[in-house]
Amino acid sequence: MIVERAKRKDMKKILSLTLLLSGLTLATFAQQDGKANDSSVKKERRLPKKERHMERKSPEEIAKVRTEHLDKQLKFTEAQRNEVYALQLAQAKRHEAHRSEMKKLQEKWKAEAKESHDKFQQTLTPEQQQLMKEKFANAKNKKMLRKREDYRGKEGFRGRKPMIKEDKSEL
């Protein structure tokens, strides 16, 4: 009889503990449901891991990897495999040429922007230059704030208010 009471108490403890843990688990999943959708959208925008590592490889390696990947899924014949490899190789070479061309253009645009900025700075007085620096610093802080809000939400991280406050008087 004493043994039965002890068993009942133990069973009640185990049952209540199980119910408590399952309730916590359900509450956790309910809170994460909205967040999971946001992160999955962000992950879709990013390049897959294979694609990010492809940038470091030669066009031949890229074509080989892509052809093998497609071959696993579609089971090519030897003739198809050779033709797909040739297509992938041509595409990888075009992409590499385009990427290098874009890098050169970016460097050119950056140099032109710096030159234009330097000429503009030469036309300003020292007081005006100081005002411009302050304006750009405020704009940079606002931009950082917007990025934080996008990442953390308007309330900030874990419901806290953002550290940087927007000054609406300057607008």
Number of domains: 3
Global mean pLDDT: 81
User: For the CA atoms, what is the radius of gyration?
Assistant: 30 Å
Order of helices and strands: HHHHH
Low-confidence stretches: none
What general form does the structure show? flat
Number of helices: 5
* Biggest beta-sheet profile: none
Question: How is the secondary structure organized here?
Answer:
Elements: H1 2-45, H2 49-54, H3 59-74, H4 78-123, H5 126-152
Helix pairs in contact: 3-4
Please provide a written account of the structure.
The model has no long low-confidence stretch (mean pLDDT 81). Helices cover 81% and strands 0% of the residues. α3 (59-74) crosses α4 (78-123). The chain folds into 3 domains: 1-46; 49-123, no CATH class; 124-171. The chain has 5 helices and no strands. It has 171 residues and is an all-alpha fold.
Supply the key terms.
171 residues, mainly alpha, flat
Summarize this structure briefly.
The chain has three domains: 1-46; 49-123, no CATH class; 124-171. It is 81% helix and 0% strand.
